[in-house]
Amino acid sequence: MHEPAAGAVALSPWQLALAAALVLIAGGISLALRLGLEKRLAWASVRTVVQLLIIGAILKWVFALERVLPIFGVVLVMTVIAGGAAIRRSSRTFPGAIWRSVVTLILSAWLTSILVTAAIIQVDPWYKAQYLIPLLGMILGNALTGISLCIDQLLQTLADKRDETEAELAHGATRWEAARGPLAAAVRRGMIPIINSMMVVGLVSLPGMMTGQILAGADPLQAVEYQIVVMFMIAAATAMGCILVALLVYQRLFNARHQLLSELIIKRMD
Questions:
Q1: Residues 59 and 159 grouped into a single domain
Q2: What is the pLDDT of residues 124-142, one digit of tens each?
Q3: Are 223 and 213 within 8 A, CB to CB?
Q4: Residue 160 falls within a domain, yes or no?
């Protein structure tokens, strides 16, 4: 693959302000229809601007340094935040859920990102921030959704069908035999978003990375090449993440005596 072309049109503060007017239109619709979303929309808009400006400044500094420690400091912070977000999106949780989510993302997202930069794109060095951080960010953003759906499905099934699961265990089923069905269903649930995206990419949607490269002046076919890599890496990381987090939940909620520890499952009140 070739280096993506540069040449994006620079935006002025007034152009950004004009873009913000689009959000004001959405807020006006909310007010007119009494949807009650205007405050949340305003807060989300402010957070979007502040968070992106902060990360933009940090990345500019990290890109200029090109040192391993600052790069992996950013990567680690991104992963911890993503791991926490994955658990907060689930309607149920359990003790130790967050660190299991973070470990899952480290093993799945980091492994996939390093494989892409080192072996597929062949960046030199493989940890170059310009490639590693944006690619990892795309993986984390999608993988945390899959992990969240997987955990939510698994915990809900184990909580709602506790009696059935315990009956299977009481009649001689091993913990793996009792959990295999819920585990498979949870992994399938977590994979649905990325599979749906892959089914319609290029037909219904033009993904962000491809669109960004085209706007920056890259050849459309070159942008497509990168987008193919992105879609495949997201699918791989999400699959690994869902499988790994499901196994970690299984290890936590089923003990060595083949008992379901359903009392550890906590339903969120918010």
A1: no
A2: 888 888 889 989 999 999 9
A3: yes
A4: yes
d(CA 76, CA 68): 12
Residue 216 lies in a domain: yes
Question: Is there a single domain that holds both residue 75 and residue 181?
Answer: yes
Phi, psi of 36 (to 5 degrees): 75, 20
Rounded Cα distance between 230 and 71, Å, is: 20
Q: Where in the sequence is the domain holding 205, given as residue range(s)?
A: 67-267
Q: Which two tokens stand for residue 258?
A: 């083949």
Report whether pLDDT(5) > 60. no
| Tally of structural domains, the chain | 2
User: In the prediction, which pLDDT does 7 show?
Assistant: 56
Q: Are the beta carbons of 225 and 120 closer than 8 angstroms?
A: no
Q: Is the pLDDT of residue 259 over 80?
A: yes
Determine the residue type at 37: L
